[in-house]
Structures are given as structure tokens and as C-alpha cells.
Design brief:
Order of helices and strands: HEHEHHHEEEEHEHEHHEEEHHEEEEHEHE
Strand content: 15-25%
Radius of gyration: 22 Å
Distance between the termini: 20 Å
Structural class: alpha/beta
């Protein structure tokens, strides 16, 4: 681990101002008809990592309470099994193959694809894409991102150029930082467009998460008391559960699950701080909060063996519970995530039996875009294909129109979920061990997810309980219609340039030498 420099807190630098606490009457007056919106998006969190989802040792009382007061999804899915494409879909409501945040499989090596933007990534989310803050701006919303961006490394592609009024965070993940600094340099901490310093150098990584949480709390208080009475949007994206794991001193050693459990319990504490502030301000009935994560748990022992300074500890990542696979796979463990909605007075809450409301209906990340459009009164851009439907029927205890999900990795449609069935056309390894190459399945592997969430007992043509041919005929029809509707954007993760990674605030930009990531070892990171 690199030596820690002096702790630079964003507040000491004056990047977050805190106004005086508004009066109760003022807050009531400020409660506009348009709801405030908060999305809390964790990093590499597994479906089974929260106590409300059954984890036996990690304590998450605040998320448990959020679920008790709101609605817990058991079949909520991310748009992709890894960071960059997942986050692009959250903010645009569109699959990565539509918005361009994907890489393509290398034809000469079926196990090579640039999966995310790395420190030398040149591509970025296109400015022609409409993001959630850009959708909300005409409705009078003020927006801030706190935490991980990962949709553009260069300054011209930072959040402020995609509709956010404020940004406090990093352009990509916080590490790994050890070893070859030209590959994984210490990432900048940014306030709006100002570089505050580098993580592991001027910025103490061990207090970064508490700084983020305090920034979120202060932002909510500031916006709630703003005389303009503008509704606010907060995208809170902490990444302390992404390797290399880090936690604040007060959470070190508190969990029976080890360091990873410490990180999750600190995350839970942060959620509690945010919800407590919303309650204290009296704006809970006018604030929609949704919690989820970008992809499944990191179980990639092959990755840690290839990176200096990253411990090969099988407990360093999270748990998908009973689900198969993890991050970077389209098995259930890679794409099914915790999903908790909270909006007192609007989202259905506890029933008469005082059991928290749970829904088994299908939903995924991109449905948040459509939901936010509905509750804010925003109009979706014309001539653009979106992949989400509003979740408001589910949140009110009604039936959704969604019956299918489409799981992509790069430029390949890997699997299709239709009602309770899921067909795998391609699979990768589960990353518990070295990842085998991409494999094509003909005929496809078929599972009944309602009966076999672990995907251990495939339905075959000889099955007596199911009619394989009829089920696959229905799924194939849905898949064909989906593919016919896809217009692929130019892949943004195929071009790399070490000059992007080597740049530091005190140095001139090195000469640019772009290269194709798909033909370079970098693409297998």
C-alpha cells in the first residue's frame, strides 16, 4: 500500500458550502410538487451482501429499515455485469450497445475484450446522450454527483459536461494503485473541474468515504433550504466496496465478515446518514430514494494474480448468495442486484402483518430513467430508443408491463430472461477460478430461474417437466425482435492512449499515441 499523505478534506478546501439550517416552515414551503430524487449506487456489491437479503454476518440495519419502510426487489437487475457500461445505462436509460459504452470481443482471442474505461481510455459517453440530470434540468432540478463517475477520463468528459451542476469524486475507480503507475495511476479527486489532489497521495483514501457521506448530507440540507425551492437530484456513488478495499478507522474491524464486511457496514451507515437527514428536514414524503449496485461481487482470483499489490484473498469480494457467478458474467450472480425503493407515502410499505413488502417482479437499472421521467414530469427525447419502463406500477403494488431482460457483454447478446425462464446463448467463466474463454451454446442453456436461481439444473430437450422447444421458441422470438431493434453505437472502449493515464496535475500532457485496446494486453485487465 502506498504511504498516505496528509488528509485533505474537501470541506477544508471550501468545495462544499453549508447554509444555516432552514426553519421548519421554510422547509414545508420548499416541498415542491416535484419530488427530490436520490440514487445510491454501490460498487461491486453482491445480491447476498445485505442482511435484508439474507447475509448471516454483515449488519445493515439502515438498509434493512429502508426496505421495511419501502419496497425490496428480489429480481432487480443491472444493465451490465461491470462498472462503466452499467453506469452508462443507469444515467441514459439505454443499453451500452445503444449509448456506445461497450467494447468488442477480439476475434483472434475469444477471452479478450475491453470491459471498462481504464486510466488510458480515450472513449467517453457521447454528449449527444441525454443523462438523468439533463432530463431533469428543464423541470427545474439541481443535480450533483458524489463519488465514482467512470464514463470519461478526460476533463471534457467529466460530469459537469453531462448536465450535473456539481461533482465531487473521481473520474474512474480509486484503484488498484500499486505497481505500474502508467497503468493504474493514483486517481484524481475532483471538485467540479478542480483537481484537489491524488488519492493515496494528498488525499487520505481511508477517510474518503466519510467525506463523501458528509458531502451528501450537506448537499441535501443545502438544497432543501435553498430559497429558489428547486427540487434536487443526488447521484451518490461510493466505491469503497471495490478493490482495493478501504474503510474509515471507525469501521475497521467491526464486521465478522472481515474488511469487506467493514466496507459494507460503513456503506450502510452512510445510507442511514442520508435517510436520517431527509427525515430530519421533513422532506421524506417528497423524496424518492433508490438503492442498488452496478454489478455483482468481485470474485476474480485470476485478476488479483496478475496485478501487483492486490491480495489474492477469496474473501476480499462480496457474495451473490445462492446465485451463480459474479462480476463480469451474465450468470445471475453477475447481473442480479439488491434493489430497494423508498418514498414514504408513495411506495407501498409494510402490510398489516408488519412484514416488509417484497416484489418478485422484473425490473432493471434502465427502468429508473423512465420512472424518474414520470415522477418529475419530464418528457423523453423524441426519436431515441430507451430500454426502460416506469416502475411506478410496481412501487404502487400493481403489475409491471416488463416480461423480458436482455443481458449483453460487449457486442454480444449473451442471455435473455423471459418471464421465469433464462436462456444462455453465450457464457463466460464464473471467476471463482481462472476465467475460461467465451463459450457459445447451441442449443442454448435454459433455466427456470423461479425454481433454480442458482442455475445448476438446466432444462433439456429430454426434460419431462418442461417443453424445451416451446420455451426456446418463445425466447428466440423475443430475442429476434430485440436484436432487430438494436442500432449499435460506435464502441467507446476500443481505443486507449497511455498519455491519458500518465497525465498528472503538475506535469504537461505527454504525447498522444492512441492504440487499439483490443489488440493489446490492456484489454484483458
Amino acid at each position: 500500500m502506498a504511504s498516505q499523505g496528509s488528509h485533505v478534506t474537501p470541506y477544508l478546501l471550501g468545495c462544499v458550502s453549508l447554509i444555516a439550517f432552514a426553519s421548519f416552515n421554510g422547509l414545508c414551503h420548499a416541498a415542491a410538487s416535484k419530488p427530490n430524487i436520490v440514487i445510491i449506487y454501490a460498487d461491486d456489491l453482491g445480491w447476498g451482501d445485505l442482511s435484508t437479503y439474507g447475509h448471516p454476518t454483515i449488519r445493515t440495519p439502515n438498509l434493512d429499515r429502508m426496505a421495511e419502510e419501502g419496497l425490496r426487489f428480489t429480481h432487480f437487475y443491472t444493465a451490465n455485469a461491470i462498472c462503466t457500461p452499467s453506469r452508462s445505462s443507469l444515467l441514459t436509460g439505454r443499453l451500452p450497445v445503444r449509448n456506445g459504452m461497450y467494447g468488442t470481443w477480439n476475434n483472434s482471442d475469444a477471452n479478450v475484450m475491453t470491459q471498462v474505461l481504464h486510466a488510458d481510455g480515450v472513449g467517453a459517453l457521447a454528449h449527444s446522450e441525454t443523462t438523468i440530470p439533463e432530463l431533469l434540468a428543464p423541470q427545474g432540478y439541481y443535480s450533483k454527483l458524489i463519488g465514482k463517475w467512470h464514463l470519461g477520463i478526460q476533463e471534457e468528459n467529466w460530469p459537469m459536461s453531462h448536465g450535473f451542476d456539481e461533482f465531487l469524486g473521481t473520474p474512474m475507480m480509486h484503484g488498484p494503485n500499486e505497481g505500474n503507475q502508467s497503468v493504474f495511476p493514483d486517481m484524481q479527486l475532483i471538485n467540479k473541474t478542480q483537481v484537489l489532489g491524488r488519492l493515496y497521495k494528498e488525499i487520505d483514501i481511508h477517510t474518503l468515504n466519510t467525506d463523501y457521506i458528509q458531502a451528501a448530507v450537506d448537499y441535501i440540507q443545502t438544497r432543501a433550504g435553498d430559497p429558489s425551492e428547486k427540487p434536487f437530484f443526488l447521484y451518490f456513488a461510493p466505491d469503497n466496496t471495490h478493490i482495493p478495499l478501504f474503510t474509515s478507522p471507525q469501521f475497521a474491524g467491526v464486521s465478522r465478515r472481515g474488511l469487506y464486511g467493514d466496507c459494507v457496514e460503513e456503506l450502510d451507515w452512510g445510507v442511514g446518514q442520508i435517510l436520517d437527514k431527509i427525515r430530519a428536514l421533513g422532506i421524506e414524503n417528497n423524496t424518492f430514494v433508490f438503492f442498488s449496485s452496478d454489478n455483482g461481487p468481485d470474485r476474480r482470483l485470476d485478476l488479483c494474480k496478475s496485478l501487483p499489490g492486490v491480495a489474492c484473498d477469496p474473501t476480499r469480494g462480496g457474495s451473490a448468495g445462492p446465485l451463480r457467478g459474479g462480476k463480469s458474467t451474465t450468470w445471475e450472480g453477475g447481473v442480479r442486484e439488491p434493489g430497494i425503493a423508498w418514498w414514504p407515502g408513495t411506495v407501498v410499505a409494510m402490510g398489516d402483518d408488519q412484514v416488509a413488502k417484497v416484489t418478485t417482479q422484473l425490473a432493471w437499472t434502465m427502468d429508473l430513467f423512465a420512472t424518474i421521467a414520470e415522477i418529475s414530469g419530464a418528457k423523453l427525447p423524441q426519436g431515441v430508443t430507451f430500454d426502460g419502463v416506469s416502475m411506478m406500477p410496481i412501487l404502487k403494488g400493481e403489475l409491471s408491463t416488463r416480461d423480458s431482460l436482455f443481458h449483453w457483454r460487449g457486442n454480444k447478446l449473451m442471455a435473455v430472461r423471459h418471464n421465469q425462464f433464462k436462456a444462455h446463448f453465450y457464457t463466460e467463466g464464473e471467476f471463482e477460478w481462472n476465467s475460461p474463454a467465451l463459450g457459445k451454446h447451441d442449443p442454448p442453456i435454459l433455466f427456470d430461474i423461479s425454481q433454480d436461481p442458482a442455475e445448476r439444473f438446466p432444462i433439456t430437450a429430454t426434460s419431462t417437466t418442461y417443453h424445451y422447444a416451446d420455451i426456446m421458441a418463445a425466447i428466440s422470438k423475443v430475442a429476434a425482435a430485440h436484436l432487430a431493434d438494436i442500432k449499435m453505437a460506435d464502441p467507446q472502449m476500443n481505443t486507449c492512449d497511455k498519455s491519458v493515464a500518465l497525465w498528472k496535475p503538475d506535469l504537461p500532457v505527454p504525447p498522444s499515441k492512441p492504440y487499439n485496446c483490443c489488440q493489446d494486453p490492456c484489454s484483458s485487465w
